[in-house]
Every structure is written in structure tokens, then in C-alpha cells.
Specification:
Blueprint: H1 2-20, E1 25-26, E2 32-39, E3 46-53, E4 56-63, E5 74-78, E6 85-90, E7 96-103, E8 106-114, E9 121-128, E10 131-132, E11 134-139, E12 145-152, E13 155-163, E14 169-176, E15 179-180, E16 182-187, E17 193-200, E18 203-212, E19 215-221
């Protein structure tokens, strides 16, 4: 009985040592292979962990922020059949902040961002070679749109709509290369027109009209 207890104690004490034997290893060609873990320099806190398959990242890699080790700050998912990787960023409490694809260390395709205090989507946007392209949509916590704006080459370009929380458009604007350019109309939350005019390169130009209770009150020339 005493011998069995000694054997059990030996197994318990040595199990962590055996478990570490397969970590941070190389294959016959000197490439990383299997589970790798690295700590922050001069610290026993984990910096990252993940699996390599003969030098290539495989599956999920977890990255940690110094001083916060309970949850990873980011998880990067590698797929051998894809050149892109899936990336998810997290708060210190483990709640997702944003997620999307990266290609050659640049954002690519659709990215999703989440509200801080809920699981609802805060914003969606699209990237091409790391630059915003297409619609960027922002949402209230109830899921309704608060803004929808077109982008081109990382700048606002095209139509832009701003919404009240009841779904009513309160601003309808146009942009060109990041500047207000084209017709602009402003409404109140009830849908009544307040102002309309024209922008040229971020400046008001021409005749602007001002309304009250949908009746024209004033005209100004710029």
C-alpha cells in the first residue's frame, strides 16, 4: 500500500514535467513543430501559445496582453487551405471587440465590431488590401442603423446617411475623396426637412434653403 502511494506521488509530481516535454520542439529540419508557448521576457506570464506543423502555424494562436493573463487579447486562426487568417480581438474580460480576416498583415473583406456593453453589432465595414472600400454601417444597440456611408480607397466617397434611433434619416450627404461634395439635406427626427443645399470640397456653395415645419423660411447664398 505504501509503495502504491509512493508511485502515485511520483506520478503527480512528475506529470507537469512530462507534459512540458512536448513543448517548443523542432522537427528534423529545424522547423517549429507541435505546441509552442512563449512568455514575456523576464516574466512567467504567457505571451502566446499555438501549434506549428513543420514550421507553419496551424489552428488557433492565442496572444496575451502583459499584465492580463486570464483571457487572450487576440486569437488568430490559421487554415492551411487559405492565405488569409481569421482574427478576433477581445477585452480583458474575454468579450469580443472585433473580428475579421487579414491577408499579408492587412485587413481584408468584412470586419465586424461589437458594442462594449452588449453582444450586438456596433459596426460593419469592408476592406480591400487594408483600405476601407464599400459600405460602412454603424448600429445602435437595438440593431437599427445609425449611419451608412460609402468608402473608396480608405476615404468617404459617395452617399452617406445618418439616422435617428427611430429609423428616420436626419442627414443625407455626399462625399468625394473624403470631402463633403454634392447635395446635402438635413431633417429632424420626425422627417421634416430642415436644411438643403450644396457642398463643394467641404464648403457650402450656392443657394441654401432653411425650413421650419416644412415651410421655407430663409435662403442664403454662399
Amino acid at each position: 500500500m505504501f509503495k502504491h502511494k509512493l508511485n502515485y506521488l511520483f506520478l503527480v509530481l512528475c506529470l507537469p514535467l512530462f507534459a512540458q516535454e512536448g513543448i517548443n520542439k523542432y522537427d528534423e529540419e529545424g522547423k517549429r513543430h507541435g505546441l509552442w508557448r512563449k512568455n514575456f521576457e523576464g516574466s512567467d506570464q504567457l505571451r502566446f501559445e499555438g501549434h506549428f506543423n513543420h514550421g507553419e502555424e496551424a489552428g488557433d494562436f492565442k496572444f496575451y496582453k502583459k499584465g492580463f493573463e486570464k483571457h487572450p487579447s487576440a486569437i488568430i486562426s490559421f487554415n492551411k487551405d487559405s492565405d488569409s487568417v481569421m482574427v478576433t480581438y477581445y477585452t480583458q474580460e474575454g468579450k469580443p471587440i472585433s473580428e475579421g480576416k487579414m491577408l499579408d498583415k492587412k485587413r481584408e473583406g468584412k470586419w465586424v465590431y461589437y458594442h462594449k456593453d452588449s453582444d450586438s453589432i456596433m459596426m460593419t465595414e469592408n476592406y480591400v488590401h487594408g483600405k476601407l472600400e464599400g459600405k460602412q454601417c454603424t448600429y445602435f444597440t437595438n440593431g437599427k442603423l445609425t449611419e451608412k456611408t460609402e468608402y473608396k480607397n480608405n476615404k468617404k466617397h459617395g452617399e452617406s446617411f445618418i439616422y435617428a434611433d427611430n429609423g428616420q434619416v436626419i442627414q443625407h450627404l455626399h462625399y468625394a475623396n473624403g470631402e463633403l461634395h454634392g447635395p446635402a439635406t438635413y431633417y429632424n427626427a420626425s422627417g421634416e426637412k430642415l436644411i438643403e443645399g450644396q457642398y463643394t470640397r467641404d464648403q457650402k456653395k450656392g443657394e441654401w434653403k432653411y425650413y421650419k415645419e416644412e415651410e421655407l423660411q430663409e435662403k442664403k447664398d454662399y
